Amino acid sequence: MPEVTLRAYRDSDRTTLTEIMVEAFEGVSIDQAIEKEFGVLNGHDWKWRKARHFDDDVARDREGIIVAEHEGRILGFISTWLEYDTGIGHIPNISLIPECRGQGIGRKLIEAALDRFRQHGLTHSKIETMAHNPIGNHLYPGCGFREVARQVHFIAEL
Ligand SMILES: CC(C)(COP(=O)(O)OP(=O)(O)OC[C@H]1O[C@@H](n2cnc3c(N)ncnc32)[C@H](O)[C@@H]1OP(=O)(O)O)[C@@H](O)C(=O)NCCC(=O)NCCS
User: Is the CB of 16 under 6 A from ligand 1?
Assistant: First the structure.
């Protein structure tokens, strides 16, 4: 693994992280699957919809976004938010640039997220992946997550 620094999110990261996330979700995005079936919705493609997820992450818990970088270059991030009432720490998004995948950085980001949840007194953590995402289905159990359910997404034309 390259020497990776984890640091807090800054506003100046927003464009880069959004681009990394949209690129990373190619092939593992529900929004892209919708577009394959129905085409562009309301004049916006799936990348536009996916990009909004990062805005949601920032709005919900900007301090919960942990950025991975190497010698000043941003490699990716993990987003998290804290649900104190349920004791659950959520991980809505995790993404890395292609050339840095498969070197343990994703695991490091997940461990940092889990540490954050523990520090805040949470008891469990939740993460989701597509059924056909081999990395998520391998990595998340390897980080202590247990599969509890599979969900089916439906879309109807109105
Ligand atoms: C998901 C992601 C953040 C993980 O980060 P990463 O640094 O690649 O992950 P790691 O290297 O820490 O771990 C990946 C694990 O998956 C394994 N893996 C990689 N490709 C795999 C494949 N095709 N099938 C099964 N396992 C695979 C690796 O061997 C490794 O397991 P190990 O630690 O037991 O050896 C990164 O791969 C990514 O950005 N992917 C594209 C976007 C994505 O899928 N996001 C998640 C959506 S839920």
Answer: no
